Amino acid sequence: MDVTFSAAALIQASYLLTAFLFIMGLKRMSSPVTARSGILWAGAGMLVATLATFFYPGLTNFPLIIVAIVIGSSIAWFSGRRVAMTDIPQMIALYNGMGGGAAAAIAAVELYRGEQTSTAGATLAVVGGIIGAVSFSGSLIAFGKLQGLIRKSLRFGGQQLLNLLILAAALLLGGLIAAGVLLTPAAVTGLFAAALLLGLSMTLPIGGADMPVVISLYNALTGLAVAFEGFVLGNAAMIIAGTVVGSAGTLLTQLMAKAMNRSLGNVLFSGFGDSAGAATGGAIAGSMKPIEAADVGVMMAFAQKVIIVPGYGMAVAQAQHKVWELCQLLIDRGVTVRFAIHPVAGRMPGHMNVLLAEAGVPYDLIADLDEINAEFDTADVALIIGANDVVNPVARNDKSSPIYGMPILNADKAKNVIVIKRGQGAGFSGIENALFYLDNTRMLYGDGQAAAAALITAVKSV
Amino acid sequence: MTGIVALYIFMLAAFTGYEVIAKVPVILHTPLMSGSNFVHGIVLVGAMVALGNAVTPLEKTIGFVGVLLAAGNAVGGYAVTERMLEMFKSSGARGGKQGGGKGAH
């Protein structure tokens, strides 16, 4: 008895320490100066909690636990270490889905056992289980979409109604289970099947461009599911960490949606996000005018100021290193070079900063939207590489456009606009870009990396 | 833990989560989302308890999958977050101060 008591006390103290380390870690991660140490603090917290749990009173099945931890950890460690920086968003979705699945698994074990002591406990297990399962299947779809495994967005009439019906079915079953009226294995299976189906059908219609917001939402939901299962198990570390992530994640989701000029409801229910179909109102007058790399090289070499507007396309082409090499050549010639980063450049807010940091671009050359927009007037060249919707002027002046009102980079104000683009197709959102048709815009067709290499040659030969 | 104490913990933790990231600059949104993704990997301890108390083959199977997924969440979340933030350090030497002031307005 005495031994059990001290083990329990040790575990409680460890969980308290873990909660402290998690909160401090997140706090440190919210400032660039301390961010690096933040993950170490949080990591230490996780280690403490995991080790302490091995001393949990009455625990058995240790070989199974250790084997599962080793398998799960190794797969995740090697995938997480090897993944390209461009693919980070889908990996976050994947790991998040795993967390949701784990929360659902805890609920499933509790519910299949069918020994709920209280209705409140059973209700929390059910709600956490539903949320976890939705987050699991939804995150896997988000992963599939960003990874390019799922290309089409499944949409049909009455889809929202169907989702509502699935949700109602899950809630009804869950209510009956929690009340103890229908606590049978079949009902529990039905509950999780409905929740998993809901995650699928909710996420399938959402387009790739909106996925970051969706992943962030599922991240918050997983946190909430973990907190609920923490209540069921009477585990303070899970309650605190899960709730902190639930609320922080909700705020982060709102910030992201705001940066994209979309409301959360809009993201979840409007079905826009990858192909706007009959998107814009008026047809765009004019034509796209091509230019050769040699001419662009001369133009940039003799410019006073060049602003680079990178987009996700640059990262896909792995052109960021070449672009930075080009910029260094220009800087050596006395040209002022700046990078203009839209809040949603890349696949998530902040993703482009990560990608540029990887290429070695120093922070003092990188400016965000508010800082840089006044500077386009004085720029001789705006070089758009892989960006599209974030420089589309229709967001400012075409009320019929789905992206109307979205804050954009005013690249069209520069004296010369050079757009590096693979072909003539529309962007991620499927909306025609009026910038490409302006009189001061020239198109440099080609793969981002090849085009950047051609520009390097051109600048060197000036 | 009584219900009301659990509710107090829930409420205070919710406020904490909100306050902790209320002023985060846009450049850290992705790392922070990844970091919070790692933090809910704490579900691992719950999954360990669930598997540790499992008796029937069904419970053991689900518990095993739960621990495996939770370990993946925690370790994968750590790996990608650490990698991202690592790069912030390397270029932060030159312009970290500027990066710090940016977006905080």
Question: How would you characterize this protein structure?
Answer:
The complex is a heterodimer of chains A (462) and B (105). Chain A has helices at 2-29, 35-53, 62-82, 88-113, 119-147, 159-178, 185-203, 211-233, 236-259, 264-269, 293-301, 312-316, 320-332, 351-359, 369-372, 394-397, 448-460; strands at residues 305-310, 336-341, 366-368, 381-385, 416-421, 441-445. Chain A starts with a helix and ends with a helix. Chain A has 462 residues and is an alpha/beta fold. By secondary structure, chain B is mainly alpha-helical. Chain B has 4 helices and no strands. In chain B, helix 2 runs antiparallel to helix 4 (57-101) and helix 3 runs antiparallel to helix 4 (57-101). Chain B starts with a helix and ends with a helix. The chains are: A alpha/beta (462), B mainly alpha (105). Chains A and B meet through helix 1, helix 2, helix 3, helix 4 and helix 8 of A and helix 1, helix 2, helix 3 and helix 4 of B.
A few lines on this structure:
The complex is a heterodimer of chains A (462) and B (105). Chain A contains 17 helices and six strands. Chain A has helices at residues 2-29, 35-53, 62-82, 88-113, 119-147, 159-178, 185-203, 211-233, 236-259, 264-269, 293-301, 312-316, 320-332, 351-359, 369-372, 394-397, 448-460; strands at 305-310, 336-341, 366-368, 381-385, 416-421, 441-445.
